[in-house]
Amino acid sequence: MTAERTYTITELAREFAITPRAIRFYEDQGLLTPDRAGRTRVYSRADRTRLKLSLRGKRLGLTLAEIKQILDMYGGANNTEPQLDRFLKVLGERRAALAQQLEDIEVVLGEIDMLERQCRELLNNRTSDKSENQGM
Description:
The structure is a single chain. 71% of the residues lie in helices and 4% in strands. By secondary structure, it is mainly alpha-helical. The chain is elongated, with a radius of gyration of 26 Å. The N and C termini lie far apart (98 Å). One of its GO terms (molecular function) is DNA-binding transcription factor activity. Residues 6-73 form the HTH merR-type domain.
């Protein structure tokens, strides 16, 4: 019988390119629950997976509360249908929020384009006026 692979906070921090402090923060938020050997945190494969999924959720723009809610659903029964339904709902909400942000960004970029054109026209007009005045 082989012992389950465990990880130290330093190993996980290095693997995921985050600080040990970030891992402790996720722990404080209830996303990770490592065992302890004395004062040392001992992370299981399940903790590693939860950290990986938490970081993925963060990249997607999910809140820590949303990530925790989704992760906690997987700790229960083997029926993953409710978890998948919830995750699809969260992803749909995130997609809608990102689509709105994209639309807002496109509007702002359009306004910036217009202002840049106006500034260039004003500069060109001033340059033309100076040239005409010097020719007199």
